[in-house]
Germin-like protein (Sphagnum jensenii), 218 residues
Amino acid sequence: MGSKGHYSSMMILWVMFVAFFIMIMKVKAVDPDPLVDFPAGPDAPFTFHNITVNGVVTQTSGGTRAALSTEVFPATIGEGITSVKFTLVPCGVNVPHTHPRATELLNVVAGGPLLVGWVNTSGVLQTDRLFAGDVALFPRGLLHFEQNFGNTNCTFISALNSQNPGVLNAGQALFALPNPVLATALNIPIPLLQIFKNEFSPALLQTNRLLSGCIPLA
């Protein structure tokens, strides 16, 4: 076989290797498939009542978050799925965050308009306004947010395709970086960055929704 044929064979092997590697990485990126009908066990309840009261409930700057977990709803163990109910107050923001291990499908059930958006890996922002019955999809691992521009509460329910999708808050992550790194990323002097960090902590930014400058729509 000539050098040209050898080169072609090597290229084919390289393409096959890359394709196989990508396939393996995709398989590893999702929750494992269940090996039995119901991993939680035959006696585990398959229904869950009143997530607003009995779920994992937290109060945020934007409103109330009520989520499922494998602890409160063992039926989700091994199923690769979970759900979150969010009620945003007028002008409330579910601050920019990512889910490292899950894609999110959001369904508005009451209220609106709800401003939703996400940023792709090219730095391009995608946004839209949703009302009851509308749906949005946030791709896995990408930065996204929601803000209620209505003058009443807005409720939405999200499904995520992992029993443990993870949440990485963008503001908290940025504030955790060393000053020289963050100053370089933002292209500002370190003294100016320090003044900003002294005035605005991630906790303050999450507890004062008025900082958003939102004006509810009638």
Q: What stands out?
A: Residues 13-28 have pLDDT under 50 and may be disordered.
